[in-house]
Amino acid sequence: MMATLATAALVPVAIFLSLFFFYLISRHPALSAISAAVVVSIAWEVPNIPPLAALAGFQVYFLDLLTVGLLVLTLARTSQMIRNIGFTAWIWLGLGAILFFAFARGASTIGLPEATSEFRAYLYPFASLGWAFSLDWDRPGTDKLVRRFALAIGYSLSLVAFYHISLHGLGSTSEFVSVNADTEQTSRALVAGQALMLLLSTIVCLHFWKSTGKRSYAWSAGLFTLVIILTQERTVWVAAAGAAIAVGLSGNTGVKRRTALVVASAAFFAFIAIASGALSPVIDTLVGAAQNFNTIEARMEGWTNLIRGSTLQGMPVVLFGEPFGQGYGRAQSGVWVTYAPHNWYLSLYLRSGIVGLILFTSFLIVVATRALRAHAPAASIAIVVVMIAFGWTYSWPWYVFVFIGWAIVPLTNRARIQDSLEVPIMTPQNVKGGTIA
């Protein structure tokens, strides 16, 4: 009886706090960016943020409140999203509808707690990216926000990485250390999501170095690149290489020259470091990380088994996926494992089927095509390529929304205006938008 009364008393408080939080993020969008910066900075030490409260048997997390607020704002600003990214807004909303359908099926057949637990990993990025796509982007104000966000993320994660290296050394791709009594973490200096954010911050710094000529951005990008190398997150290495190739192939002569200069400089300093022998222990560790294919081989076996299990359940599952709460059990390296498959595209297929996966890949194809047709800044192309590559071995984290929104919304506006006028639209003054700052 007392527990019921206590829960009833907490409900109005929870509703008030939720509405107040919603008011804050609706009036001050920068608070969402600050939340992302804090969460990603502590992701190594606190991979799972403790719940704020437990209501009616459910644990309520800070990210739940943030996500609900972002989702409501996204739906309220659907018209603005359509103005921002055109018909791709309907593709994004269609993907969301399929995911919510899978959640409803899971809640009704498997159980609401189980379905909710799995659904969070999809809802968080869907809502945060939708929120970013629906913002009124203003280039000067946006640049200021993204510039500060990138520097804050970059330097905070660099400090975190060097702190971890001082405690555990460089670590390796196969070693783990205890974070607390219940959690083990990779011995590498940063987790994959942190290394991804550091790479996106590097791309942004290179962009502002080009646009402003300030060398401080170049030095920041150099520091962040060094940390990325030391983290041994091979997916991020591959994503960085893919972005460099894409920019080098699609950019103008000046972009190709700068890309070649950056790559050549990195290769020169790497050669000096290897030839001198001064960094032999570090080099051996990094080479060992690059040559270790055990992780990807095990994952590919698990991916194959998940796809096989899905197809055996019939055409409805292939088309629309399994309900949330079903789990990800499969044989992997001779062991039965149940954690998420570490592949964003496969994860989407498992819960939204071929239909959902086609919607998502269509969104990426349209965005990439618009970037090329609109002669988008190299940073926009690089960010899109990085995210495409990262999704092959990890799920998309929710906190990338600031960078993706900055990369996609202005360029899609520019591309659609260019199509309507049939002339190149290259100046920032012609980008449609309002204000974010």
- Number of H- or I-type helical stretches: 17
Shape: globular
Strand content: under 5%
Number of domains: 1
Number of strands: 6
User: Which spans of ≥5 residues are poorly predicted at pLDDT below 50?
Assistant: 415-437
Write the element-wise H/E pattern from the N-terminal end onward.
Answer: HHEEHHHHHEEHHHHHHHEEHHH
Q: Mind summarizing the main beta sheet? A: 2 strands, antiparallel
N- to C-terminal distance: 48 Å
Radius of gyration: 22 Å
Average pLDDT metric: 82
Strand order of the largest sheet: 1-2
Helical content stands at: over 70%
Structural class: mainly alpha
What descriptive keywords fit this protein?
single chain, 437 residues, mainly alpha, two-stranded antiparallel ribbon, two-stranded antiparallel sheet, 72% helix, disordered C terminus
Helix and strand topology:
Elements: H1 2-27, H2 30-41, E1 53-55, E2 58-60, H3 62-76, H4 78-85, H5 88-109, H6 112-133, H7 139-168, E3 176-178, E4 184-186, H8 192-212, H9 215-231, H10 234-250, H11 253-276, H12 280-291, H13 294-311, H14 315-320, E5 330-332, E6 335-337, H15 344-373, H16 378-390, H17 401-421
Antiparallel strand pairs: 1-2, 3-4, 5-6
Report what the structure shows.
- It is built from 17 helices and 6 strands.
- The chain has 437 residues and is mainly alpha-helical.
- The protein has one domain (29-430).
- The protein has a two-stranded antiparallel ribbon with strand order 1-2. It has a two-stranded antiparallel sheet with strand order 3-4.
- Helix 7 packs across helix 8 (192-212), helix 7 (139-168) packs across helix 9 and helix 15 packs across helix 17 (401-421).
- The chain is globular, with a radius of gyration of 22 Å.
